[in-house]
Amino acid sequence: MELDDVDAFAAQLEGCRQRRIDGRVGWYVNGLLVVRPETDRTILIRLDPTQRESMLAAHPDTFGVPPAWEAHEKVQANLDGDADAIRTAIKMAWERQRRT
């Protein structure tokens, strides 16, 4: 998976728009973060703690939580990991944020 794939998938989600904040691109719904790049090969996805733990348990080679993000409701996804699992996590984040 590439960032272009993340962009294309996020663009399909109703109300999800790409924005640049403080020089960083991300995809937001209702002004709330859904997903954003962290490094060239990783993205951060905003998930509630239960969703995060579920994705970590089901896809440990795709998702992780670096120490800097342990206190935040985010999971890091490796773009070389399971693309379907990444899309599922992005969709969960979108659903959560659009309800807020």
Give an overview in words:
The protein has about 100 residues and is α+β, with helices and mostly antiparallel strands. The chain has a single domain, classed as Aspartate Aminotransferase, domain 1 (Alpha-Beta Complex). About 35% of the residues lie in helices and about 30% in strands. The protein has 3 helices and 6 strands. It has a 6-stranded antiparallel sheet. It is globular. The chain starts with a helix and ends with a helix. The mean pLDDT is about 95.
Task: Output the keywords.
alpha+beta, single chain, 100 residues, 37% helix, 3 helices
Annotate the secondary structure layout.
Blueprint: H1 3-12, E1 17-21, E2 24-29, E3 32-37, E4 42-46, H2 49-58, E5 63-64, E6 74-78, H3 83-99
Antiparallel strand pairs: 1-2, 2-3, 3-4, 4-6, 5-6
Summarize the structure.
This is TfoX N-terminal domain-containing protein. With 100 residues, this protein is an alpha+beta fold.
Instruction: Please count the helical segments.
Output: 3
Structural category is alpha+beta
Low-pLDDT runs of 5+ residues are: none
CATH A-level architecture: Alpha-Beta Complex
Radius of gyration: 12 Å
Order of helices and strands: HEEEEHEEH
CATH topology: Aspartate Aminotransferase, domain 1
Helix content: 25-40%
CATH level 1 class label: Alpha Beta
**What would the principal axes of the Cα set say about the shape?**
globular
Kindly report the average pLDDT value: 95
